[in-house]
Amino acid sequence: MKKVLIYGFGWTGQSMLQLCVKIGFECKVLDDNINLDFTQDDIFIDQKGITENFDIYFVCIINKESAKEAYNKLKDAGIPKVKIKFISTYDYKNKMAFLVREYFKEPSQVLKKWLEDDQSMTYFHSQMKAMLNEYYQIKKSNADSLLEWSNKIRSTMIGQTIFAKLYTSALIKSDLAHIAYPGFNIGISFEKKEDKNFYFVQKIDFEAIMQRPKDVKLVACFGNSALRVEYLPLEDTITAFLQKKLGKKYIVLNFGVTGYTIYEQMMLYNALVFPLKPEIVISCFGGTDWRTGIVSCEHLVKTHKMTYTPGFYEYAYKKVTKSELPLYSEIGNDRKAINNKILDDDVNEAIACRLRQFNLVTSGGGGHFMPLYNPYCRVS
Fold first, then answer.
1. Partner of 216 at 20 to 30 A CA spacing, among 13, 34, 82, 256?
2. Residues 161, 174: contact at Cβ < 8 Å?
């Protein structure tokens, strides 16, 4: 397999890597600004790797001075000038992969063409421009059919939010444990599936609740799995018992989400429940806050008073960034795998801060706030 070195891993380098891999080259990446201590991926090499026997070397740096420095490093390492080429485009994206074979057929032939091209890769850049134009033409011609297809799919999911539709229409759901809404996350449930938007234990008619009679009070209950009790029939939940005790002049709703902290409860309240103007807001807090607090970020917990579930946010962002940094919460059952910079008092202070804020937000909306320490709520 022909070997390619990509020097520079900004937009240009990433684009060129995608293209070269698709064509069928073995690729290595060198970037003076990448700290190799942060990765175990052997695609990245340091300066010592320059002397490996690569068939072609691409300097994928837009800034002319930086590109010249990279060129000189390659030349000083004894790389023949004919093998060093400058790339100044980042037009290629993986969504254009269906066009690759039309423009770049067989790796050996492609490499021969590239080596024959001038150092600025004039012919290559003209090919990329032609490929991009063809892609846009195809995209334009497909727009009407895409719109028709989109409307057809959406019509089968009446009443679902766009985020729920994206989840429902995903073919592979094995890595999708949550739906990420603006400002809050909702865990997917395989037991309570009536509500396709938010997967609450019971589907809530938000419009009807908003139009409830003035003499009917709304009790909104927030908490984690101890309130949600996914595994129990609805009639055996805490909120069902409360509804039975309070009677018909009250509507008791269960907004419990597995893994929620007090901070996350408040974000959910702000997003979905504030417009309902509940008369009473009950927060069952405690267990998750302490369990997740010791494996969270010390800056967010201690300085910003945020307790949060790493499985919602840290995992998701790690996947987006493709970082290899091990998280405390994913190392396993090792007792040492905690953030020793966070003390119990730090978590307690964060909880107290957000309870006070939750109280202010609730009372500002005309409601009464009732915090309940989670374990006692469950025992009762």
1. 256
2. no
Model pLDDT, residue 108: 95
Task: Give the DSSP letter string of 106-128.
Answer: -HHHHHHHHHHS-TT-HHHHHHH
Contact 43, 28 (CB under 8 A): yes
Query: What tokens appear for 116 in the block?
Result: 């024959």
Give 93's contacts (C-beta < 8 A, 6+ positions apart).
Answer: 15, 18
CA dist., res. 166 & res. 249, Å (int): 38
Q: Treating both helix axes as pointing N-terminal to C-terminal, what angle do 107-116 and 122-154 enclose, rounded to 10 degrees?
A: 130
152-165 residues labelled b (16+ CB within 10 A) or e (exposed) = eeeeeeeebeeebb
- For 161, phi and psi rounded to 5 degrees? -70, 165
In a domain, 54, yes or no: yes
Range of the domain at 345: 165-379
CATH number reported for the structural domain that contains residue 88 in this entry:
3.40.50.720
* pLDDT value at residue 335: 66
Quote the percentage of the chain above a pLDDT of 70: 97
Confidence of residue 128 (pLDDT cuts 50, 70, 90): very high
Give the integer Cα–Cα distance in Å for 24 and 19.
9
Contacts with 21 (C-beta within 8 Å, 6 or more apart), sequence order: 27
Percent of the residues in the chain that have a pLDDT greater than 90, as a whole number: 69
How many independent structural domains does the chain possess?
Answer: 2
Domain membership of residue 102 (yes or no) is yes
CA 269 to chain centre: 22
Residues 6+ apart with CB under 8 A from 315: 327, 329, 330
Q: Which residue has the tokens 């609730």?
A: 362
- Using an 8 Å Cβ cutoff, are 228 and 256 in contact? yes
Counts for the chain of helices (H) and strands (E), in that order: 15, 11
